[in-house]
Design brief:
The chain has 295 residues and is mainly beta. It is 0% helix and 44% strand. The chain is rod-shaped and about 130 Å long.
């Protein structure tokens, strides 16, 4: 990656002393120099590209040697780098893939190397032309990549792609019901993590399943809701609430277990949503077995 070059040479003859040998040289298609005893020469500010230096020797008897040749490449121009695939603007995914290419006046594309980084990370070194990042955080990000040619020239203006990750909150859970397990339709969106369950607007537990059993309710009127949480920690709004009214009552239908507390005896369970009674049953709280009962 420099354009000043220096050559040195020597001749040998079986009769003529080394000090009496003469030399003629040229660069490329230039004319041959006059014969002289010079054995060192510097060329400055050569143009980029392939060059050939030639030199030959003549002894005191006028015999000329064959020509010695040295071919070399001058490359002082850095390569260019461009990104051909990657996110721009705002996206709602936290996994992204970039693909890039480079061009150079001398080094073929297959001979280029690359360095890339995301945000303030250290520069990598690779010969590949693609990379994928996963589990990125919300916010602004900048991807940079630069090429380096075989002469060691690096792109001084790396290719840059800027993007913003905006992961939306999860979808609000729907279909909340009580049986006496709380259950609802599962969330299927990308990045979902777990649910929070609320009784009377106070969180009572979390679950990765789309069901929950509240062991601690006892008798009373309770409002249940559920929210979803994604891997970014973002929360959905509360589901449509259901109101469960558990009061003393008479036995009828299935016997189910509502609590792991002390037996509450006969209880009546009434489930209300939007002011409409969705279910009403009278049960006992101290067993999970179906029983035959008498009025």
């Amino acid at each position: 990656n420099y354009n000043d070059v220096t050559f040195e040479w020597r001749g040998f003859d079986s009769i003529t002393l080394l000090a009496n040998l003469k030399y003629s040289y040229k660069l490329g298609t230039n004319t041959w120099s006059n014969w002289a005893s010079t054995t060192k020469l510097t060329y400055n500010k050569l143009t980029d590209g392939t060059h050939s230096f030639y030199v030959r020797t003549r002894d005191a008897a006028g015999n000329e040697s064959s020509t010695a040749t040295r071919t070399f490449i001058v490359d002082t121009t850095p390569p260019d780098t461009f990104i051909i695939k990657g996110p721009t603007g705002s996206i709602n995914a936290n996994a992204v893939t970039f693909e890039w290419r480079g061009t150079d006046t001398v080094t073929p594309a297959s001979g280029l190397q690359y360095s890339y980084k995301l945000d303030n990370a250290s520069w990598s070194v690779t010969s590949t032309t693609t990379v994928t990042y996963s589990n990125l955080k919300d916010g602004s990000h900048t991807f940079s990549v630069k090429a380096r040619d075989a002469a060691g020239n690096e792109d001084t203006n790396p290719a840059i792609m800027e993007f913003v990750i905006v992961i939306p909150p999860p979808v609000i859970p729907v279909g909340l019901s009580y049986s006496p397990n709380l259950s609802w339709s599962p969330n299927k969106e990308y990045g979902f993590a777990f649910y929070n369950v609320y009784r009377n607007w106070i969180r009572i537990g979390s679950t990765t399943l789309n069901c929950y059993l509240d062991y601690e309710s006892g008798l009373g009127t309770f409002t249940y809701t559920v929210t979803a949480v994604n891997k970014e920690g973002k929360k959905s709004g509360h589901s449509q609430p259901i109101v469960v009214n558990i009061v003393p009552g008479s036995i009828s239908g299935k016997v189910i277990r509502l609590s792991n507390q002390q037996p509450l005896g006969l209880v009546k369970v009434e489930v209300t949503q939007n002011g409409i009674i969705k279910a009403s049953t009278t049960t006992t709280s101290d067993t999970t077995e179906d029983e035959d009962t008498e009025d």
